[in-house]
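Q: I have 196 residues here and want to know how they pack in 3D. Can you give me a structure?
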Amino acid sequence: MPGAVPADVDKAAFTGAPMPDGLSPEEKVAFERLTFVYSKGIAYGYQMGLRPQTLYGIADSPVGLAAYFLDHDAWSYALISRVFSGEAAGLTRDDVLDNITITWLTNTAISGARLYWENKLPFFSVKGVSIPVAVSAFPDEIDLGPRSWAERAYPKLIHYNKLDKGGHFAAWEQPQLLSEEVRAGFRSLRKIAIAA
């Protein structure tokens, strides 16, 4: 989630206002995705941010936890359900079940909500990052992060790559691709450090 959405675009998507004028075709697709996420896919984040303790039911039942993980928002459900429909999308059924099992056995479903409880920043808008940044734009990410937005959001953008597959949990879905992206993204910094 690159967090590079311009303020006017973020506000329009969040409030359901019309798409701002002057967006490129790639930015229009990103706006439409963001509008969908705000209307059908972020309620779990608000719930975890406002009242995470009320989710204790997912810590009491492995079936409840599995149901929550599989269908906590519309976008994730679409991505996960394709695995159970026979599509090869980076994850397997065992990957999904392993994730649920590890969370159940470590009893970390509720503590995982602390990220939302402690975060006081907007979900997708620019955060004012001034250090070197590498952005890998995965097509199934909930925030697509067009290059034009990344360049405006990050004055020290050192790497941008638009990938063909992967999504919000790229480390889980496409670990090889993500590791290649981390290496490519910070290659220029490594060269500087070696030269020094």
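Q: Anything worth noting?
A: The CA atoms of residues 82 and 89 lie 7 Å apart. The chain has eleven helices and two strands.
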